[in-house]
Design goal:
Strand content: 15-25%
Helix content: 25-40%
Structural class: alpha+beta
Strand order of the largest sheet: 3-2-1-4-5
Oligomer: single chain
Number of helices: 4
Distance between the termini: 50 Å
Order of helices and strands: HHHEEEEEH
Radius of gyration: 23 Å
Shape: elongated
Length: 210
């Protein structure tokens, strides 16, 4: 069950449905242009297809930016051993602009509280990790980690997690299942349904234009 779970800010996100949508979008447009020739009316559709492309590029650039920061902190070599003492769950609000009316929704994040042990003095300092969109503690077989500190001394990065070998191995913390996001998978299902509906609408529009 070896894996790598990145903090939410380092995740690229689920861009595959968007890429698939763009592929179908431009495939349909190119098919119409090949069969009927270019029409200025299609220019609007060509430009509209760049919007999801911009969103994908922005997501990738943001994730790579934070990953570079992690790599720089690790390359600096300032690290110590740490022990995960607890997990904090927070639901952070954000504005959803996908509907006609803006709605406040919530994203769930999991933060690891870690005791850093200074190898020289033995003094313990408790820090909080970056937020994870997945319940990372459910995948760990040990509470031991390595904590890297960046040059500023204010940002910490956790590495060298010890992952479970099997899914059914005991958890390191005895949190109830309700502690986690029980509807975690529903967001992906809704997104897939939305993409399918959009694809059908696009194909219907293309057939009408053609």
């Amino acid at each position: 069950m070896s894996r790598r779970i990145r903090p939410a800010e380092e995740e690229v996100g689920n861009i595959i449905p968007t890429i698939l949508f763009m592929f179908l979008w431009y495939s349909g447009l190119l098919g119409i242009i090949a069969s009927t020739g270019f029409d200025t009316m299609l220019l609007l559709f060509l430009i509209a297809g760049l919007l999801p492309l911009y969103s994908v590029v922005t997501s990738i650039r943001r994730a790579l930016f934070y990953r570079r920061q992690r790599a720089e902190a690790i390359a600096g070599g300032q690290s110590c051993t740490g022990k995960i003492r607890s997990v904090v769950r927070q639901d952070q609000p954000y504005l959803d602009h996908t509907h006609d009316h803006r709605r406040i929704r919530y994203r769930r994040y999991y933060y690891l509280e870690v005791d850093m042990i200074n190898p020289d003095t033995g003094v313990t300092n408790t820090i909080r990790s970056q937020g994870y969109s997945k319940p990372i503690h459910r995948y760990l077989s040990s509470n031991k980690v390595r904590v890297y500190t960046d040059k500023s001394g204010w940002k910490y990065y956790l590495e060298d997690f010890q992952w479970k070998q099997n899914k059914n191995d005991p958890d390191i913390f005895d949190y109830p299942k309700e502690f986690e996001d029980t509807i975690m998978g529903q967001g992906n299902i809704i997104q897939i349904i939305f993409i399918v509906i959009m694809i059908l609408m696009v194909l219907n529009t293309f057939f009408q234009i053609g």
